[in-house]
Each structure stands twice: as structure tokens, then as C-alpha cells.
């Protein structure tokens, strides 16, 4: 099985910054996608940033220009630098793993999708 562990969440004032980290371990494929999703209360889970196995990066429009995602393939980590945070960024943030063909921020569920337990980000 694949395990994902997120860290780095917390509370911050609007305009502030946070950095999230995710570590993947276990039975990962040789090539895989890692991404960040988030879910606010009463809303659907949305993909916000991802890095495919070939290094290609994608962002949701809602975070483009404010968030930066980076991946260390050797360490199996995925980081998310979040700047200029807004109250609407408040959500549970989840690290996601999937096969490259499912590396699409609009896809929330697949047979091979794994999510971590999440880390809370609160912006006030």
C-alpha cells in the first residue's frame, strides 16, 4: 500500500505564508503523480497543485501566482509554498498519489488514488 503523510499546516493571518510537506512511502510505482487537494467545509475536494512523474506542474486558477509546488523525486516528497494566503484558502489540505495517467487536478477519485490524512490550514 501507499502511505502519505502531510505536515506544516496551521493558523495564519491573511496575507501570511505557510509551507506544507508530504512524504510518500510504501508500494509506490516507479512513475507516479503527487498533488495537493483541499477541502473546505461544505465544499467538494478540489485539486490545487500537482507534479507528474516527468516533472510537469499544474495549478488551479485559484492558487496560481500565490502557491508554488515542488517535488523531490529521490526523497518522494512534495512541498507546497503558500503565499498571500486568503481566508478562502482555509481548508483541510491533502496530499494525493496516483498513476501518471490520472494526474489531473479535476479528477478526485480513481481506483488507484490515495490521499493522506490531511493537514488543516486556517487563514483569518
Terminal CA distance: 37 Å
The portion of residues forming beta strands comes to over 45%
Point out poorly predicted stretches: none
Number of helices: 0
Shape: globular
Largest sheet: 7 strands, mixed
Helix/strand order, N-terminal first: EEEEEEEEEEE
Rg: 13 Å
Helix percentage range:
under 10%
Task: Compute the average pLDDT.
Answer: 97
Overall SS class: mainly beta
Please provide a written account of the structure:
The mean pLDDT is 97. The chain is an all-beta fold and 124 residues long. The relative contact order is 0.32. It has strands at 2-7, 10-12, 18-26, 33-39, 46-51, 57-59, 67-72, 77-82, 91-98, 114-115, 119-123. The chain is built from no helices and eleven strands. Strands 2, 4, 5, 6, 9, 10 and 11 form a seven-stranded mixed sheet that branches. The protein has a four-stranded antiparallel sheet with strand order 1-3-8-7, with no helix packed on it. It is 0% helix and 49% strand. The radius of gyration is 13 Å and the shape is globular.
Summarize the structure.
By secondary structure, the chain is mainly beta. Helix content is 0%, strand content 49%. The chain has strands spanning 2-7, 10-12, 18-26, 33-39, 46-51, 57-59, 67-72, 77-82, 91-98, 114-115, 119-123.
Amino acid at each position: 500500500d501507499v502511505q502519505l503523510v502531510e505536515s506544516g499546516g496551521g493558523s495564519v493571518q491573511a496575507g501570511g505564508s505557510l509551507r506544507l510537506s508530504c512524504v510518500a512511502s510504501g508500494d509506490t510505482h516507479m512513475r507516479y503523480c503527487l498533488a495537493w487537494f483541499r477541502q473546505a467545509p461544505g465544499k467538494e475536494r478540489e485539486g490545487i497543485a500537482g507534479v507528474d512523474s516527468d516533472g510537469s506542474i499544474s495549478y488551479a486558477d485559484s492558487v496560481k501566482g500565490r502557491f508554488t509546488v515542488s517535488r523531490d523525486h529521490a526523497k518522494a516528497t512534495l512541498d507546497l509554498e503558500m503565499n498571500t494566503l486568503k481566508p478562502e484558502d482555509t481548508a483541510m489540505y491533502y496530499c494525493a498519489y496516483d498513476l501518471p495517467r490520472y494526474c489531473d487536478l479535476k479528477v478526485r477519485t480513481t481506483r488507484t488514488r490515495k490521499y493522506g490524512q490531511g493537514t488543516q490550514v486556517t487563514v483569518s
